[in-house]
Specification:
Length: 227
């Protein structure tokens, strides 16, 4: 139990947080929990997709230490250049539909303009860059959408879409926790079901985000016309 608490503490779960139910955790906390579960269940192969998303700097450092100490085969899917530099010993660069193997970590490849920006969190902006961008757009959209009679129904629809969007992302986070648990893979049918559901929820969340932003634009146009 002490070892488990040490692992959880390294990913930001301390004190009463250790006894929280998974359903009460935020999306970021669930991601950190999934990583903690992964590190607590040694396996021969680890495949991690953007593992530093939602992590603060201390958690990222702990993750790097754990991955460097990991004795098995590790496959990382990541845009985090800092993580690549500190952990990877080979690169597979995917560009224009082609995957190319590179021995070692070539700094020129990491600095290539065609490569995505690093997802490494900073003290001023930690966590998932994609989520931060999305939340920033939502906040900006809310500020633009003023309450008035002309847009009441549209604003109601916007709020419903936003709730559905957040629900989809919460369900997606729950599935990611299950997929990070090695015991899940004892049931191949469940793994297949979770994989299908995971892809469906990703598509659903993306569609709802587009609907949300489209509604915000409609609200803006109506309010502009009514000025």
């Amino acid at each position: 139990e002490r070892n488990l608490r040490t692992i959880l503490g390294g990913f930001g779960f301390r004190g009463e947080q250790v006894d929280q139910k998974v359903g009460d955790l935020s999306g970021g906390e669930r991601t950190r929990l999934a990583l903690a579960i992964t590190m607590a269940n040694p396996v021969n192969l680890l495949i991690l997709d953007e593992p530093t998303n939602h992590l603060d700097l201390p958690s990222c450092d702990l993750l790097e230490d754990a991955l460097n100490a990991y004795p098995g085969t590790l496959i990382l899917v990541t845009h985090d250049r800092h993580l690549i530099r500190n952990v990877a010993d080979a690169l597979i660069v995917v560009r224009n539909g082609t995957a190319t193997w590179h021995d070692g970590v070539n700094e020129d490849l990491l600095k290539s303009p065609s490569e995505p920006r690093s997802a490494r969190p900073t003290p001023e902006s930690s966590g998932n860059r994609h989520k931060e961008d999305r939340e920033a757009r939502k906040d900006k959209a809310r500020r633009r959408s003023r309450s008035n009679d002309a847009t009441r129904e549209l604003r109601k629809e916007r709020n419903q879409v936003e709730q559905a969007w957040e629900q989809a992302e919460n369900e997606l986070a729950e599935i990611q926790v299950l997929l990070a648990d090695s015991s899940t893979y004892d049931n191949p049918d469940l793994v297949k079901e979770l994989g299908i559901k995971h892809d469906q929820l990703k598509d659903q969340a993306s569609e709802l985000m587009d609907q949300y932003e489209a509604l915000v634009r409609r609200i803006d146009r109506k309010e502009s016309d009514n000025k």
